[in-house]
């Protein structure tokens, strides 16, 4: 669980999640807030690096398409 690639992925996606959460809170939009929270929380529950990177990439793509809806 404490592999460097997993730690880097968790840190990267958590920073993106904080940005998405703050963006959603500032504009009062629930989708970026929810995706931001998911980006911040999910790395704690993924045991393998490939799962962390895959889920993070999927959530970032979801955020890209739902950031202004």
UniProtKB/TrEMBL annotation:
<keyword id="KW-1133">Transmembrane helix</keyword>
<feature type="transmembrane region" description="Helical">
    <location>
        <begin position="44"/>
        <end position="65"/>
    </location>
</feature>
<protein>
    <recommendedName>
        <fullName>Amino acid transporter</fullName>
    </recommendedName>
</protein>
<feature type="transmembrane region" description="Helical">
    <location>
        <begin position="7"/>
        <end position="24"/>
    </location>
</feature>
<keyword id="KW-0812">Transmembrane</keyword>
<keyword id="KW-0472">Membrane</keyword>
